[in-house]
Design goal:
48% helix; 3 helices; 2 domains; mainly alpha; 121 residues; 2 strands
């Protein structure tokens, strides 16, 4: 997939889908085509001012794609990943707090030793 973006927001916003010929049934690399074969057909979709959900729906319609429902195992895995992310975020906050407390303590110790310049760093 190639995405070309421009800064010109007033210009067209076109999503072009190029359909390649159906692959052969052979899985051998020796029979793979040497050069890129031009697309059999191309469909252009004007996506200007469309929400991402609308773009996805239109893309699925054009390509004949079907939404795949997650299996129970996949849902469980996603739940576990979400929990791990939550724990990771809490750990990150705790680590930042510990580092800040250490920095503050070192600054106070430097002040107590009479090193005002060190405390400001």
């Amino acid at each position: 997939m190639t995405v070309n973006r421009t800064r010109d927001q007033a210009g067209p916003a076109t999503l072009t889908v190029f359909f390649a010929p159906a692959p052969s049934e052979s899985t051998s690399a020796a029979t793979a085509p040497e050069e890129h074969v031009p697309a059999e057909r191309a469909v252009a979709v004007d996506v200007k001012h469309m929400h991402e959900g609308e773009i996805l729906a239109r893309l699925m319609e054009v390509t004949g794609a079907v939404a795949v429902v997650a299996t129970k195992e996949e849902e469980e895995e996603l739940r576990m990943v979400g929990e791990e992310r939550g724990r990771s975020e809490k750990d990150k906050e705790r680590t930042a707090e510990v580092k800040e407390n250490r920095r503050r303590r070192e600054s106070l110790l430097a002040l107590a030793r009479g090193g005002r310049e060190e405390a400001r760093a």
